Amino acid sequence: MPYLALLFNAFVWGLSWWPLRHLQAQGLHPLWATLLFFALGGAVIALTRPQAWATVRRTPALWVLALASGATNAAFNWGVSTGEVVRVVLLFYLMPLWAVGLAWWLLGERITGLALVRVGLALGGALLVLRPVDGGWPAFQGLADWLGLLGGMGFALTNVVLRRQAAQPTSARALAMFLGGITLPALMGTVLAVQGVIPPWPPLQLTWLWQALALGSLFLIGNMALQFGASRLPVHITSVVMLTEVMFAAGSAVWLGGEVLRPTVLAGGALILLAALMATRDKA
Questions:
Q1: Could you give the CA distance from residue 240 to residue 263 in angstroms, rounded to a whole number?
Q2: pLDDT single digits (tens) 114-129
């Protein structure tokens, strides 16, 4: 059951780009959709674990966790909704690259030779993923690539802060993450909508509302599945199983989105995933 729970969570996130694009086609921008998803989960935690509010209020580190979680989800959802899914997901999974520096800075962990090898593999993979189809120097092709990179940075910071705040109640950490998923997309969406960068909040329609609530429910169940599986398996096993998200995302992007997996992207993805797998051995 723990393995199946983790696979379910990876499946939900790996295929999330598809319903997000359907919602965007109906006028609900990914930032607004992210706000709705996390508002649903945040309401559930706030009602069932009201004591978590006090812990979050008096713990500034959990505010950092909220910011990191909000940035992670806002950037990832926006990126996979507008860009090439496989590129965005692989750039997101450069997370071990950023985790090395953050763990050294915030946790005082020593940078080992093996960690430098992981950094080299991840960077090499990123260069291959970013290499243009017609050759030339690696380059970002648009906003979606940058969002994938930013999401991965936020994910790395989220994991490091979670490790540093392991003594805090699970409910308080979860509430902080959901609050970040509400407030950051709300602030970003408002500013960008006023500037005309993204469309404003659309008129309420039951067609997109029930779809958004259904997807938000799936995200909530997926989060609960992650908590269930991660609490019953070693950390390195959890990390390996969660990498199946890349497989789900790539397979669905080819099948449903018509994307083509170029050899350079496959090679770069292999290097990035190898770096991520090596990172799991640190927690074995």
A1: 23
A2: 778 888 888 888 888 8
Range of the domain at 268: 2-281
Separation CA 170–CA 29 (nearest Å): 30
CB 53 within 8 A of CB 116: no
- Looking at the 3D structure of the chain, how many domains does it have? 1
Cβ neighbour number for residue 270 with a 10 Å cutoff? 14
Q: Are 127 and 138 in contact (CB under 8 A)?
A: yes
Q: String of b and e for 144-154 (b: at least 16 CB within 10 Å)?
A: bbbbbbbbbbb
C-beta of residue 28 within 8 angstroms of C-beta of residue 200: no
Residues in the chain: 284
pLDDT band at 234 (very low <50, low <70, confident <90, very high): low
d(CA 158, CA 64): 8
Amino acid at 90: L
3 state DSSP class of 16: coil
Burial label for 20, CB within 10 Å (0-12, 13-18, 19+), is buried
